[in-house]
Amino acid sequence: MTKWSLSTLSRLKSDWLFTVVTRSSACVAAAIVFLVVAFLISESIPAIRQIGVGRFITDASWHPLSDQFNLTPMIVASLTITLGAILIAAPLGISAAIYCQFYAPTAIAVWYRRLIELLSGIPSVVFGLWGLVVLAPIVARLGGSGQSILTASLVLGLMILPTVALTTQAALRSVPGEWLAGGAALGFCRSSTIRRIALPAARRGILGGLLLALARAMGETMAVLMLAGNVVEMPDSIVAPARTLTANIALEMGYATAGHRSVLFVSGLFLIAIVAVSVSLAGFGGAVDE
């Protein structure tokens, strides 16, 4: 009885300690997010008070030295490049995960996964150099200099493809084998089992991977800085040059004065707001599906 009681107390203590550690870690992670947002807000308040939110949309152009602070072209460029990257990475990444999980022989699947993991470890500046030397001249045949929204989207799509592929495969791997076996027992072929059982069951994990990829694409700086063209004007086609919010912050933060610097922090708030809206819409869509 004593041994059983000591064992029970030991397990309870272990469970309590594990609960405290995980809860503390969760609180720290949430606190970091709130502190980052609070820091951005505190640094943005001088610009918001002095300039007003409306002028970030209605000013004629972006010329901080001339008191012009229109962020609209850069917001549009950020959204366009991110959307283009997701449209490229989502079908390729999901297809790669399906092949690796359901079709590839074990030996090939292992090496295929390692290849995707290697792709995820390539620095963004290397992607930028490759895109600048190899891809930009090809895109230039469609018009312009080759440094454009299309070039940035293609390279960014390759950069976030491993995130989509690896998270999708993890979600597919978590689908219970009994469900797949049940589909086979009902006479489903492999493709029908994947479409009707595996993908619907893994949709929340796949959506989470797409959100991670979206956040990575929205926050990417170096490759986009090298490939998008860095022209602050409203793009009229996918081969037009553009400048994203992240590239603008990286280019101008080094020499920005007080008011100009505060506006750049407002750009950071816009980025966080875009990601937050995307996550909220995705969460609402998942809730509706359920």
UniProtKB/TrEMBL annotation:
Membrane topology: Multi-pass membrane protein
Annotated ranges, domain ABC transmembrane type-1: 75-282
MF annotations from Gene Ontology: phosphate transmembrane transporter activity
A Pfam short name: BPD_transp_1
Membrane-spanning segments: 20-41, 74-103, 115-140, 146-166, 205-228, 263-288
Cellular localization per UniProt: Cell membrane
Protein's UniProt keywords contain Membrane: yes
Keyword check for Transport: yes
Superkingdom classification of source: Bacteria
Keywords recorded for this protein, A-Z: Cell membrane, Membrane, Phosphate transport, Transmembrane, Transmembrane helix, Transport
InterPro entries in the cross-refs: MetI-like, MetI-like_sf, Phosphate_PstC, Phosphate_Transport_Permease
GO cellular component labels: plasma membrane
A GO BP entry: phosphate ion transport
Known function: Part of the binding-protein-dependent transport system for phosphate; probably responsible for the translocation of the substrate across the membrane.
Sequence similarity: Belongs to the binding-protein-dependent transport system permease family. CysTW subfamily.
UniProt-recorded name of the protein: Phosphate transport system permease protein
Organism: Stieleria marina
